[in-house]
Specification:
By secondary structure, the protein is α+β, with helices and mostly antiparallel strands. The protein is built from six helices and 18 strands.
Amino acid sequence: MQSDGVAEVFITANPTQAKPPGEQAEALFSAVAEVLHSHKAHILQERIFGTDAALQDALAVRQAIYGTLDDGVPPVLLAVPEGPYGGLCGIQIHAVSCGEMPKVLRSEGTACGRRLDAGGLGYVALSGLIAPKAGANTDQARAIFEKAASALREAGTDIFSVARTWLWIEDILSWYDDFNSVRSGFFRECGIIKGGPYENCLPASTGIGVGPAGSPQCALDVIATVGERACVEYHRAAGMQQPPFEYGSAFSRAATAQTPAGKTVYVSGTAAIDEAGITQHVNDPKGQVDMTVTNVQAVLRDINCTDADVVHAIAYSKTPEIQDLFHREWADLGWPCISVISDICRDALLFEIEATACPGARAG
C-alpha cells in the first residue's frame, strides 16, 4: 500500500514442505529479508508461530540472516503444535518504507515496540508485552494492560488511540471469563467503557488460545495512532453480528484506522456465533468453518472491502482435522493466511479467523 512517499508492506511466509525447522527458517527468513531489502522497508510488527523447539531454531536463524534489519525489538514468539509441514508454522510481518526510521520503544528497559512518524501521523506498534513475574494469570493479564498504557504514554499517546489488540492466552479455556473480567475492569478505569454497547470506544481484538513461548500466561500486541491525521472508527457491530460487549467481551467487531500509507481495516477474531452471541453448528466443523469465514466476509462488505483487500489473516483451528477441512474447503479464498492449531475461547467453538484489509492495496 503506497501513498505520499510511504509504503506499507505486509508479508506472510509459510513453509510448503516438511523439512527440519532450521532449514525451513533459513528459507523463509531469507525470502523475508529479500522482500524487506528490496522495498527498503523497516519492520513495525513481527510474529513467528511454531513449536517451542522450532521457535528457538527460527530465532537463531533470523538473527544470522537479518543483520541490520534487526533493530533490537524481538519478534513475538507464539507456541503452537506442529502444522502440516512440521514445527515452524509461519511468519507474519508488517513493515514500512519511507524516509523515516521507526523509533524503538521500551518498557522497563526492554525493547517492546516501535513508533513511526510520517506525514502528520504517528503509528505505534507494541509487541509481545508480558509480565510473567506478576504472579497468577489474572495478575499477569492486569499487568500487561498496565504495561501497554505506560508504553503508550511514553510514545506520546494513550489507550484511547488504540485501534487493535491481540491477546495471546495460554490455557484459554480454563480462565477466559476471568480474563474478560480483568480486561473490562481495566477499560472501565480508563474510561473506554463508558455506557452502552454502542457508546464504548473498544478496539478490535483477538483473544485466542495461543500462548507466548516460555512461561508467560498471556501476552499483548497493540496498534495505536496519534497526530493530526489519526482517526480510529470503531465498528461495534458489523456484518451479521452484534457488539461482543453485549455478552461480556470488551472489543469491537472491527476498527478502521488511518495508517502510514492509507486506511487499514482490522477485523477482530471471529467465530460461528450468532447475533445473540450463541455458538452455532455445535459438533459440526464444516458448518462452523463456513459460518466463520462468511461472518468475516460480511464484516468486510460492511466496511467496503472485499476478499482481494485482505493483506493479513490468521486462522485458528482446534484440531488438525479442522485445519485440513479449512484448507480444503476454502482453498480459493485468496487471503494471505497463517494457519495454526489452537484452542478457541469456548469449548464448543472449533474455528476462528481474523483479517486485516487495506482497500485497493493488493490490486495496486
